Amino acid sequence: MRYVDPVRNPYAPGAGQRPPELAGRDRELQVFDVVLERVARGRPERSLMLTGLRGVGKTVLLNTLRSQAIGRLWGTGKIEARPDQSLRRPVSAALHMAVRELAPHHRAPDRIDDFLGVLKAFALRANSANAKLRDRWQPGIDVPARAGRADSGDIEIDLVELFSDAASVATDVGTGIALFIDEMQDLGPEDISALCAACHELSQLGAPLIVVGAGLPHLPAVLSAAKSYSERLFRYQRIDRLDRLSADQALGAPASREEVEYEQKALDLLYEKSGGYPYFVQAYGKATWDHAPRSPVTAEDVRVAAPEAEAELAVGFFGSRYERATPAEREYMRAMAALSASEPTDDMDAAVPTAEIAKQLERKPASLSPARDALIKKGLIYSGERGTVAFTVPHFGRYLRTVG
Ligand SMILES: Nc1ncnc2c1ncn2[C@@H]1O[C@H](COP(=O)(O)OP(=O)(O)OP(=O)(O)O)[C@@H](O)[C@H]1O
Ligand SMILES: [Mg+2]
Q: InterPro entries of this UniProt entry (predicted)?
């Protein structure tokens, strides 16, 4: 009989927390390996876009893909997009990082300095003409700015020039540059449009620079609203909940490294509770481990621990998001929750027609548009199909129904 040591609890619920075992993502990792190889050889390849609900593991996967690229001596940089923030500054910082990673493999330091000069000129454009001197941003690049390239002020033109110059530095060393963008749905329309144009241009040139994005399920709609050809430009990969086998692996593999086992019935119940959503797998796994006195872990251990997992999710996963909503927005979401309960697929928190929400709240549909748009902007709901909305947070409808 083995004691389950709480100090050795391996599970990691939390945004962007690296899981002890990255389960069920082999296909995505393989696809990316091929992409890296093809791009480095100048073969035509589409940029990748990972989409999925909150807590399915997009950020973690993005970070893993980044390590994969670094492993192949690529230059990499990462951005987390924010609403109302322009792309210019974060792109400068990310490409600066990427080129610094490449520099040690490069034989001609002046080529790096040339690029950094262009990058600085691009970055300095982030300062609007009338910004006060002390508010001006100083990119931490120690070469003089080189005027005349990537500094027109038109983000589309500038990104194309900047990306192709960055790519040519990578060509010199025989690898590539990968730019990772998390929460990509939050980029403004102008920036999205410019990014699409730059990716389009670069792939036509066979230049080794790719953008790897991650975002909520409506990211494809955001991209195609900006540029109609974006559907052909990107390869979308839906990141979803784990199937039973992968969920068992996510729990079982780290446990067995600590010589802890689960009874089959414990795994059955854990899957029923988590629905295979990675965040929930980690949360229930962690609480169960803390409560289980000995290995093998039983279904009873899971049952005893579940309320603690649920209490933690209520605060850290659901509550923190709910609090971002105004009273009117909360009312809107409650109506959604009530309506999605009447669907047969309760667990899925099915999409709800906006017309039904208006009826439920006895309001005119147009009067609810501000609440709906604000909730989309806050990333709490999304509109996958025209005229419907759904929660971006799995099990959110159920949560709202239980808090009453
Ligand atoms: N493949 C996986 N196997 C096991 N656990 C995972 C896996 N992917 C992610 N997790 C766990 O799930 C949780 C959420 O991961 P992550 O923050 O990457 O999700 P996300 O999709 O980026 O969510 P959000 O949309 O809120 O940013 C983390 O605790 C992480 O450890
Ligand atoms: Mg994330």
A: AAA_16, Cyt_c-like_dom, P-loop_NTPase
Q: How confident is the model at residue 346 (pLDDT cuts 50, 70, 90)?
A: very low
Which structural domain range is residue 284 located in? 243-322
Q: How far is CA 315 from the centre of its chain?
A: 21
Residue nearest to atom 27 of ligand 1 (CA): 54
Residue 396 lies in a domain: yes
Burial 192-208 (b: 16+ CB within 10 A, else e): bbbbbbbbbbbbeeebb
Nearest by Cα to 49 from 176, 182, 194:
182
Residue 353 lies in a domain: yes
HSE at residue 88, side-chain half, CA atoms within 13 A, is 24
Q: What is the pLDDT of residues 84-121, one digit of tens each?
A: 899 999 999 999 999 999 988 888 889 999 999 999 99
**Ligand 1 binding pocket includes 65 (Cβ within 6 Å):** no
Q: Which residues surround the ion ligand 2 when the cut-off is CB under 5 Å? A: 59
Say yes or no to pLDDT of 300 above 50. yes
